[in-house]
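Lab notebook, bench 4. Still working through the backlog of constructs that have no structural model yet. Next entry is a single chain of 135 residues. Request: give me the structure tokens for it.
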Amino acid sequence: MDFRKAVFLYCKRERKKIKKKKEYHHNNSVETCYNTPDKQEKNIMSESKTEKFIYRTSELVCSEAIEIGIRDNRIESLEFIGGCPGNLIGISKLVRGMEIDDVIKTLSGVRCGGKPTSCPDQLAKALQSYKKQKK
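Model written out:
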């Protein structure tokens, strides 16, 4: 199991115990877990200046988490953990290279069936959370 996934699983398991951020060091990466009332986020900084942000999605959607690579306010990489593979791979390819604000504007409010949210909507929420964290 790679280090990022191990830290994510640890954060998920320990989410009720985390009072403030905790850092984990491995090679040249620093992994930070954050605990918020209903979500858990993890920010991974690497030397390549690409920021990796992992967002725990709502329990109302099929995907469990979203891992986003961001460079210069643009999405460099995107991976949904769990969910409908074909649709989510398609979304990942479509938003690659787009600016964060454009993705938020385009995907906010998209619903899945009768659910109040969807995987694309969760991506918009993840990017909004990333922007708040960066302030």
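Notes after review: The mean pLDDT is 78. The chain has one domain: 3-134. Flag for follow-up if needed.
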